[in-house]
Design a protein that fits this description.
Layout (H helix, E strand, L loop, with lengths): L10 E5 L7 H8 L5 E7 L2 E9 L2 H11 L11 E4 L3
Antiparallel strand pairs: 1-3, 1-4, 2-3
GO molecular function: RNA binding
Protein name: RRM domain-containing protein
Keywords: RNA-binding
Length: 84
């Protein structure tokens, strides 16, 4: 399972999303940070997703900015580097 102690890489693992967090809303949120490649949702697991950037530097900027972000005003999302 990915956690905050994974080494930096270009893919982020997002947890604790609300059930109604759609892919479009996540793309809008993560596009605020340059070099987004894609948002990949996990079928059957609406509270987790993967977000890929061009490189580890870009993903690190998004991770630092969005970890503990209140997605819908209530759910603090957990943003970590994905396990490679």
């Amino acid at each position: 399972m990915p956690d905050k102690y994974q080494p930096p890489n270009k893919i982020l693992f997002i947890q604790n999303l609300p059930e109604n967090a759609g892919k479009d809303a996540l793309e809008v949120l993560f596009k605020q940070y340059p070099n987004l490649v894609e948002v990949r949702t996990i079928p059957g697991r609406s509270n987790t997703t993967f977000v890929e950037y061009v490189d580890a530097t870009s993903s690190g900027v998004a991770k630092d900015a969005l970890h503990n972000y209140k997605f819908d005003g209530k759910h603090k999302i957990k943003v970590t580097f994905a396990k490679q």
